[in-house]
Write a structure and sequence with these properties.
The structure is a single chain. The chain is of the alpha/beta class. It has 16 helices and 16 strands. α12 packs across α13. It is globular, with a radius of gyration of 23 Å.
């Protein structure tokens, strides 16, 4: 008979909402062993196909069960450069855990009985960090004079850089912001991804010889042609998706209406919650509305709620989403955490207008109730406005979290770089090479807004192609 899953430990919601400490505490060794022992070691392990980078999940869990933690770390790192990060932020319930044999076929997300693959990966990643384990570099002398420019230090750029550096290729990462990490630092709050975990992974790349040049916007400070003229053999574009989408309704230009991108960047990267000790301020309303149903919306709402607690404001933060909870693309774990922390949910609600006062500050949001119709192109049921269902919500601060578009700073000044109608860079899906010879791309700038592990999957494919490309170069 199958044993019950080991419940992951979490900080009590009463205390965690008062700060930014990590919520999920992870497995202790005994708990990891108990959870690994639940794995049936299926002959045809479907969970592997559920992983975008193809980690041999069956093997590493078997190694955990045998207390071979070093072996498990080596197995994971064959495919995944950053297990401590992915073990924390990967939407496992839609990927590897959904494919677990303990999840019934056809379920929209993983069963609670599925193996805690992500938590075991985190356990091993943290073990590797604590033991200062390193993946052996396989440096090739023929690459010693090869130099590659990586644009962007998000998950795609970091992953590609690591793959290349381990082969002895000199990699320089150009980052437009003053700190490295991209969306891992400015988009994901510390209570989901502690900064010491991110910094450890970035420091590991530095030890491999990767150089970082911050405050350097490629497309502004330098062009692609200039990079090639500076003896870079190849350029990899990990630009990300940094342009926020808006609702297109009246009142979005009122004061205290933020994009999630700006709101989270101010807090996660620029420490706005510490103002005036830190120099970047952020307004905190008494009635905060976050529009959206994805992970970014959950992050923004949970950050907003913490700011209310920290400033002594009676917490009142509401997530407004135009479909039902079943259709929400956010991780199930994050939805559960949001509920535990006291966030309100207004489902099947479509914003119609933001209403401001005489000084130009938002005060209310007018919205309509919806019902679900037939599925749309996303496969989810389309929200249909119910006639005469308009109502108002108190709202003196709003955060719009409905997605991000392509960063066009570089593409707008590089006409020979082919893009699609969304502004995403077009690549050969087999090689990840763009329309410019020697320029490769991956991550959100290619496929649109996606997950960390999906960006890494593209980056690894691009790195393989770059290595083959360099082998042919004189």
């Amino acid at each position: 008979m199958k044993k019950e899953p080991v419940k992951i430990k979490e900080r009590d919601s009463v205390f965690r909402v008062k700060g930014f400490q990590e919520v999920v505490e992870g497995f202790f060794e005994e708990e990891a062993l108990q959870e690994a022992a639940r794995c049936m070691q299926c002959k045809d392990a479907k969970c592997i196909s559920g992983c975008p980078v193809g980690i041999d999940i069956k093997a590493f869990i078997g190694q955990v069960a045998q207390k071979d933690y070093r072996g498990a770390y080596a197995t994971i790192r064959q495919k995944n450069n950053f297990p401590s990060i992915c073990g924390r932020v990967c939407p496992a319930e839609y990927q590897c855990r959904k494919a677990c044999v303990f999840t019934k076929r056809g379920e929209p997300f993983a069963s609670s009985q599925s193996i805690g693959i992500n938590f075991l990966e985190r356990f091993i990643g943290d073990y590797g960090a604590a033991e200062k384990l390193a993946v052996e570099a396989v440096k090739d002398e023929k690459f010693s004079r090869k130099k590659v420019a990586v644009v962007g230090s998000g998950p795609a750029g970091l992953c590609c850089a690591g793959e290349l550096a381990r082969r002895g290729i000199k990699v320089i990462i150009f980052e437009g912001l003053h700190k490295t990490g991209g969306v891992l630092r400015y988009g994901i709050p510390p209570f989901r991804l502690p900064r010491n975990v991110l910094d450890f992974e970035i420091d590991s790349l530095k030890k491999l010889g990767v150089e970082f040049r911050t405050n350097t916007i490629i497309g502004n400070v330098k062009s692609i042609d200039e990079l090639f003229s500076e003896s870079y053999c190849v350029v990899f574009l990990g630009l990300g998706a940094g342009i926020p989408a808006f609702l297109g309704i009246a009142g979005e230009n009122l004061c205290n209406v933020y994009s999630a991108n700006e709101f989270l960047t101010r807090v996660n990267l620029m420490r706005a919650q510490e103002f005036p000790e830190a120099h970047t301020p952020v307004n905190v309303g008494k009635h905060i509305v976050v529009v959206g149903g994805g992970n970014t919306a959950m992050d923004a709402a949970r950050v907003a709620l913490r700011l209310q607690h920290m400033q002594g404001i009676k917490p009142d933060t509401t997530i407004v989403y135009r479909r039902s909870e079943v259709e929400m693309p956010a991780r199930r774990l994050e939805i559960e955490h949001a509920k535990e922390e006291g966030l309100k949910f207004e489902m099947l609600v479509k914003p119609e207008e933001f209403i401001g006062d005489d000084s130009g500050f938002v005060k209310k949001m007018r919205a309509s109730r919806c019902r679900l119709g037939e599925p749309d192109n996303s496969g989810r049921r389309r929200p249909m406005v119910i006639p005469n269902s308009v109502f108002e919500i108190d709202c003196d601060q709003a955060v719009i979290a409905i997605g991000l578009g392509a960063n066009k700073i570089l593409t707008s000044v590089t006409p020979e770089l082919k893009t699609d109608k969304y502004g995403d860079v077009v690549v050969n899906p087999e090689t990840m090479e763009t329309s410019i010879k020697g320029v490769f791309a991956g991550g959100d700038i290619v496929g649109g807004e996606g997950t960390v592990i999906e960006a890494m999957g593209m980056a690894k494919k691009a790195a393989d192609s770059i290595i083959k490309y360099l082998e042919k170069c004189e």
